């Protein structure tokens, strides 16, 4: 491809509305443009990268025995009503009406459609297991689309679905897909981790996310220092401390805290170290004798953070978790948030495992402007339940039993689930089993954020000059930059000759034939992240040489013109 | 691929709701399934064919210098408002609101989005010409989706757009795209024709459609018997008859026609041959002195059909054309449709060229239940305008000047337009010209109905047993059918060996390893239209032979096992 016949669309300035580096670089390198909030046009060089991701994903899916098909973006509402998700899904599910006023949704995922398809097409256990996938445009009407294609409203996803007679069979396919996902990210040249994950709104029991590690990642991942244990922080268990709770050594006392509403205030104004106090969070749950929605107190050590997903798993806590309104708290307790605590509290109390081993600690006195010191469990608070409520923190013991936890940031680019029978049961998707009886199928589902991978790869591979593509993802394999083409015949002649020789050798070359200053051309090629740039200049030609620049390593190499094509082709293909 | 691990999904019965053969065969061969009206899931074998079409289209677009990109399906309303099409487009434009109640449309076409993109990215004439394309999911909310993927609501299209400084440059690119389209349909092995077409709601001046010829086609195409002239019947000019109009030989007389409301009635009840009478159609147009919407009469020979697009081109006729309501006709004329005619009619009269050379003809007397005979132009009707108003019919002289016209049916699978400045002007898309002044760009647009091609190819290539794919489109290149696999070790051993040898040779094989009767397997392979089937049976193995069946020709060939892979690979690749 010649730049003169291409649409390079590079930008010198960083667009002001792009917060993260991948979004900035995708705009600057001319890979994407915003059409509207969360809607992006893929320019030619961006699309080439997207297609490379798609192709690797496809190859690994086929290798894993999955079969490609293609379902519509527009899905009839009745299937979503059947699964129950028409009600459960929030406004991210973009609902539309057709010209006859019939309700449809633009698919963010296809569990309903595929389950409907399989229940109609597959009738016997002999046709199982079956894994189907598609690479397709998905729609999710995000409340706040951001970070470019990282969290867009229209995006490309690979979604696969597997169908089985037994849990064991599902577990086998799940393992094969897990391996296929590792292969995909390996081949793409990304630093990634599979991590234990929550199943969230998709449902099911076992689940792993695949994260590309990057500081800008929205997710925190906990790793063991001594094993390959890794989990989304949402899901990583905070083990109960092994040390016993100290015996009480202080009396229960109140002290006035008129200005202290937070753990930070307590520290600043009263010298209470955060890990010596607890925070008390009031949420809805635990219906009272009249089946009225009641309140529940969650107690955490002052320096720990609530993990909502963990709290939701407690039978007394409503799911989704909802913080109690201040008026409801005041009506029940007679005090406001900032002065709450477990002593004398007339509602179920759930105490985090780490808070449960504290002694002589500080908490609100359930009276505005007053706190207790010297609180001790059992002595001062008779009834409470101990539960894992908090996010793990760096240094916590690893739940796998080996080493301690480290926390890193990651970008979720894949997610696989052992769904079980959530959808097949709701939609009555069964087959004739070996015993001749109808048997509900067991399902798995497996997603890759194809367009998001492009952004995640850039988050992990960039420098001050632009993108540093892993070879498998680069939009072009080689750039040819002739310097001052118009000043001699020799340079354009050799550039043209090399361009056609590389093209004949099957190398995907971007030939910068613009009448631009060399600096402009180099900057564009670096910004776009082409892995190798072949520079053709007068001085080197005097020695019958050309220069090869390696974008990732920065290395420069002089090559004899006659050996350039063979040597560079070998380097690129090797 | 092994059928045991595939989802073949063939059907024995023809689904009752499928009217045309391609729809029936796509369902029966397990290529598609209906999700909802006009929404289809592509099964694995269907998707493979779709992808083959996509790939050929892509290769020819790239060869023609077009550059691939990808725009969103969801488009903001404001761009459509800018072009004026938000108002012009009917309910086929599926309009939606996002969660913030902002209006969007699901794109049936992307003129607005691409024009907006180019006006922002391209600033100088030096960057022109530029041709961009995408292969993408499109949405058109058809009032009556039918014929499966032939007229679906969600479908795959290739749409390309070119941008130019001058009409001449546009004409050159248009010619190159015309050639690329010919290459595409040639490579796909289809019997097709490029035909002169109307520009319709897309706009512009010059336009060609590409039709796959098939009796089930919704369009009629007129061909010259002596040249390569071909036009959509909508667009084919009906030349003025060369013979002079005979002199009047009869008196004007009325006769009672109480029961005759149509040309057919006149023939049956009064012996008036259709070509000796005229029909008078009253439409809206021609405002009167008070700028009120008036009426206009269109006069055609009794055996000819009105061409609405031609009538709309007359300055006195409203566009879109609308037939006058009976009450408006009665108020103006004092008679009802069925008894109308040109004599004494007080409104503009437009006469089709063929009707204008009639003499002594019959028409309504503008009095219910009465007709005139012996009508003659000029003598009996003083003022009238002669215009091309009718569809051509077989035997008409070709507008190219050579031969006469034949009419065939076609399926429109491509449409190219010289748009001119319709969108660029409305959206102010200009570049700096050589003279340093802003200049509005000139545009072309070029569409291929990718998913429709799959159906059109089947309409043209089928028999009683199923689909007969042209080689370029077949979902598999070869089927291996071992007969009675379970009865001996020899058959599965050889089948497995050949399957891996063909696969190693790069042939896309469907290996039917099901425990089915041979007849079931043959029927499925024929239905699916695999071009070659290799049959492995006991008797032939005794002679160390296998049998190759050619789906298109029906030929059978015996091959020595050891030579089978080389011979068949050569035949498929040749």
From TrEMBL, chains A, B:
Q: What is its EC number?
A: 6.1.1.15
Spell out the Gene3D superfamilies in the cross-references. Answer: Anticodon-binding domain, Bira Bifunctional Protein, Domain 2
Record Pfam families: HGTP_anticodon, tRNA-synt_2b, tRNA_edit
Domain of life according to the entry = Bacteria
The record's note on quaternary structure and interaction partners says: Homodimer.
CDD domains to which the protein is assigned, alphabetical: ProRS-INS, ProRS_anticodon_short, ProRS_core_prok
Cellular component per GO, a single term? cytosol
- Classification via PROSITE patterns: AA_TRNA_LIGASE_II
Q: Which organism is it from?
A: Pseudoalteromonas amylolytica
Location of this chain's protein in the cell? Cytoplasm
For this protein, the record's NCBIfam families field holds: PRK09194.1, proS_fam_II
What is this protein called in UniProt? Proline--tRNA ligase
